[in-house]
């Protein structure tokens, strides 16, 4: 049998909704895609329904799929993270040649991507780990894409990726992130920030509902109003729509939903990475813990019957003014969340030797993805002005914004505390801000405590870098332990 003529520009493995939508998006932009799925029936069904009348071709096996690809062959996977990615790589590699490209478009952990780039590079295969954000609609009409990995692959995938991604003022929300696992790391931080944004909006909703006693139409109206200003974002927009949505009986559907939030792990990975890199990404951490707390619903129900809160009076202040203070708390906390997220990116880049373009990352998130917002344009401007910016809070725009919001932010947090309303993210954001702006923190006492009980040594303000030990009790001796960073 004569070998088949290569017809496809790229192959895509994994025909769940995201995979199908990316294929149709690529087809719309003139690329011929070869669709493959472990379950053959799914390929047949897709070709007869969603892909009917398109240039999409199907494959009956991995070998058949690779045979239909033009060189260098580009194989993209949209499959579940972890073992399934390694399993497909193992199946595909025997049919590839040096210079061919494998792309993982799933939510893989960045450490796995670092490993895969290295292992495949040794075989001459170029590996790309690309974050893809925007959900089903983004995949179909323009996602945000964050590719990283082997830089030799970028010229061969750039045209496809930048054609199908979202655009912000005509600029593609996709650019090369960097080497190794940087693309998936950036996507992980994006998802962590998404956790934070969602929790912050939930805290604003909780305060409006339980402190001010607002009904759902009023709250929806407030969010719609906020969405016309600096909080203009996809998540505020959909939250306004959710609050206005009525069930068949005319009651707000959102109040019938069990208050136990799920998670797929990327927020948790961000919090773990923050601990590993020693960065105080407190807001994302609290947003993950807030979901964990929500998930022990039965325990909370039991606790609510026996644990008392404050005897707080009903709110008797200026309702309109307090609503604006909630907006200020939301905006200021959001600034803190992004400042922390970019701190984590900077530290990871330093440790992993990635050359990240922070303004470019903000642009990648400016359209197509779940955290898309006007706000990201301000972040891009901050890094365009100063690519070496150490913290977003030190940029004039964000510093002034925090200063303008500070009084209202503090009022909201203190009112919530007095009335027993949990605001983990509003509160931790404020604590971080107050800590970051403090020239002195009480960690001197921690160092003294460590030296007292474990002879761990400490530095004196007058001679930083020189570690000394004190025999605090007169009986402990003068031998000190070695100092280290855990």
From TrEMBL:
Protein name: 6-phosphogluconate dehydrogenase, decarboxylating
Pathway membership: Carbohydrate degradation; pentose phosphate pathway; D-ribulose 5-phosphate from D-glucose 6-phosphate (oxidative stage): step 3/3
Family: Belongs to the 6-phosphogluconate dehydrogenase family.
Catalytic reaction(s) noted: 6-phospho-D-gluconate + NADP(+) = D-ribulose 5-phosphate + CO2 + NADPH
Active site feature: 187 (proton acceptor), 194 (proton donor)
Assigned EC number: 1.1.1.44
GO-annotated molecular function: NADP binding; phosphogluconate dehydrogenase (decarboxylating) activity
Residues that hold substrate according to the record: 107, 133-135, 190-191, 195, 264, 291, 450, 456
A Gene Ontology biological process term: D-gluconate metabolic process
Keyword annotations from UniProtKB, A to Z: Gluconate utilization, NADP, Oxidoreductase, Pentose shunt
Subunit note: Homodimer.
Residues bound to NADP(+): 14-19, 37-39, 79-81, 107
6-phosphogluconate dehydrogenase C-terminal domain residues: 183-473
Annotated function: Catalyzes the oxidative decarboxylation of 6-phosphogluconate to ribulose 5-phosphate and CO(2), with concomitant reduction of NADP to NADPH.
Source organism phylogeny: Eukaryota, Metazoa, Ecdysozoa, Arthropoda, Crustacea
UniProt cross-references to PANTHER family, sorted A to Z: 6-PHOSPHOGLUCONATE DEHYDROGENASE
């Amino acid at each position: 049998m004569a070998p088949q003529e290569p017809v496809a520009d790229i192959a895509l493995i994994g025909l769940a909704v995201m995979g199908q939508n990316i294929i149709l998006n690529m087809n719309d932009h003139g690329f011929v895609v070869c669709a493959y799925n472990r379950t053959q029936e799914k390929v047949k069904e897709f070709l007869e329904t969603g892909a009917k009348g398109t240039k999409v071709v199907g494959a009956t096996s991995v070998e058949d799929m690779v045979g239909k690809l033009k060189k260098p062959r580009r194989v993209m996977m949209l499959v579940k993270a972890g073992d399934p990615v390694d399993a497909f790589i193992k199946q595909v590699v025997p049919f590839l040649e040096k210079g061919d490209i494998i792309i993982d478009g799933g939510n893989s952990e960045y450490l796995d991507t670092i490993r895969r780039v290295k292992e495949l590079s040794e075989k001459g295969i170029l590996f790309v780990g690309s974050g893809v954000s925007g959900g089903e609609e983004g995949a179909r009409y323009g996602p945000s894409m964050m590719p990283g990995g082997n830089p030799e692959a970028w010229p061969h995938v750039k045209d496809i990726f930048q054609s199908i991604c979202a655009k912000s003022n005509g600029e593609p929300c996709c650019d090369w992130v960097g080497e190794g696992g940087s693309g998936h790391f950036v996507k992980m931080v994006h998802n962590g920030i998404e956790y934070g944004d969602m929790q912050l909006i939930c805290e604003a909703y909780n305060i409006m509902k339980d402190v001010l006693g607002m009904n759902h139409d009023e709250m929806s109206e407030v969010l719609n109003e906020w969405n016309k200003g600096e909080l203009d974002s996809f998540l505020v927009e959909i939250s306004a729509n959710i609050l206005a949505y009525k069930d068949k009986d005319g009651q707000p559907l959102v109040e019938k939903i069990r208050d136990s939030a799920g998670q797929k792990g990327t927020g948790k990975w961000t919090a773990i990475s923050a601990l590993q890199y020693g960065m105080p990404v407190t807001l994302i951490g609290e947003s993950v813990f807030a979901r964990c707390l929500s998930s022990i619903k039965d325990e909370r129900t039991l606790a609510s019957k026996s644990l008392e809160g404050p005897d707080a009076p009903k709110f008797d202040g200026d309702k309109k003014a307090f609503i604006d203070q909630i907006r200020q708390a939301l905006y200021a906390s959001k600034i803190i969340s992004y400042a922390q997220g970019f701190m984590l990116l900077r530290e990871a880049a330093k440790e992993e030797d990635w050359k990240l373009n922070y303004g470019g990352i903000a642009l990648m998130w400016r359209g197509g993805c779940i955290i898309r917002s006007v706000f990201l344009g301000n972040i891009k401007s901050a890094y365009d002005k100063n690519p070496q910016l150490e913290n977003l809070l030190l940029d004039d725009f964000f510093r002034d914004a925090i200063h303008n919001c500070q009084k209202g932010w503090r009022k909201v947090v203190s009112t919530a505390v007095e009335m027993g309303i949990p605001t983990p993210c509003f509160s931790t954001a404020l604590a971080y801000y107050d800590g970051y702006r403090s020239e002195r923190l009480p960690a001197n006492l921690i160092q003294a405590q460590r030296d007292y009980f474990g002879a761990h040594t400490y530095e004196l303000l007058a001679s930083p870098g020189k570690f000394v030990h004190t025999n605090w009790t007169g009986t402990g001796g003068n031998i000190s332990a070695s100092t280290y960073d855990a």
